[in-house]
């Protein structure tokens, strides 16, 4: 199964917004940009919200039917490994094979020797078409890269083979992700990682590196945009070269696990994929559920009270809620508004504080990040939360649509 040129990985914690997310994809199509929607939900999210992988398939199918979508759409088993992939096999057709935990584990001496011997021709000046300065590949560098990534590539092939044997290779899109680590992978590392994946026969279609800079959940990019730009462009060119050099799928492209809302680098990414005529997969919209909370706040009355109590409880339990996300959030606790302050807010004020509009005087990234990791609190409200969402479906859905189309798609594709 070949993934099309542009695709968006859409998160939807509570599974209620598929139709409104798809409306944003449809609006992009009307504007001339074809995007494949890929609904994704990680194992961690399933555990916290108490949903099953099959629920995401049901949501996607229903959204597609309701909207009359005729294009490609997929369901992503997000960040899986051998230990948990089994339950995703039947309902997913996109698999994000997460090998981050295996990076740095050393492959056997024999495996390393075979790989290095096969790749001796790249030692010296390695020219990648389009990249001005050649990479200087020394014996040492080749060994170091092999010792860091070869084992992970072999693990990726084990997981891939496990899935392919059950589903059939032609029925799935494999992604390999390495984004949940501390140090970014450089373009020359990317070259050898793709080399290693090909070496182990993984027909990878999207690859998610860790880029330079911080990709905190639900807020903008923090880092050196110039360095990101160079790295991103070199990765595009390395992938282009690797497709031919290692006979990888022609659809292979970068996958950006954005953590949502990387507004300042969207234009950079958009210009570069246009310049080089490349595709992209952007995982985003994990913050769709924040749009639900914004909708509740705007609805007023009991719905607004519910939104406020989600914040108050999250504030109380901030250590517990922030723990699992410590590496991807930056909350300044001293600047979080007190429960009394929030209690006095109108729905409009609450919504403006939460909604990610950079430059808006009410926008509060601390408030936003805390609520974002507080989805566990909303999950504990169970049906009460879902009922309020559904009682205000139009208003909530409008926020979801506006966010994905207006703040994400239109920024990336300059629409
Ligand atoms: Zn990721």
Quick structural overview:
This protein is α/β, with parallel strands linked by helices and 415 residues long. The protein is 50% helix and 12% strand. The protein is globular.
What does this structure look like?
This protein is of the alpha/beta class and 415 residues long. It has two domains: 6-103 and 147-286, TIM Barrel; 288-408, no CATH class. It is built from 17 helices and ten strands. The strands form two sheets. Strands 1-2-3-4-7-8-9-10 form an eight-stranded parallel β-barrel, surrounded by five helices. Strand 5 and strand 6 (135-137) form a beta hairpin. The structure holds zinc ion. Residues 79, 177, 179-180, 257 line the site of zinc ion (ZN).
List keywords for this structure.
10 strands; binds zinc ion; 2 domains; eight-stranded parallel beta barrel; 415 residues; TIM Barrel
Break the fold down into its secondary structure elements and pairings:
Layout: E1 6-11, H1 18-30, E2 36-42, H2 43-49, H3 53-67, E3 74-80, E4 94-98, H4 109-118, E5 124-126, E6 135-137, H5 139-167, E7 173-177, H6 187-199, E8 206-208, H7 225-245, E9 253-257, H8 266-275, E10 280-284, H9 288-299, H10 301-316, H11 318-322, H12 339-343, H13 347-354, H14 365-373, H15 375-381, H16 383-391, H17 393-412
Parallel strand pairs: 1-2, 1-10, 2-3, 3-4, 4-7, 7-8, 8-9, 9-10
Antiparallel strand pairs: 5-6
Helix pairs in contact: 1-3, 1-17, 4-5, 5-6, 6-7, 7-8, 9-10, 9-13, 9-17, 10-14
Bound molecules: zinc ion (ZN).
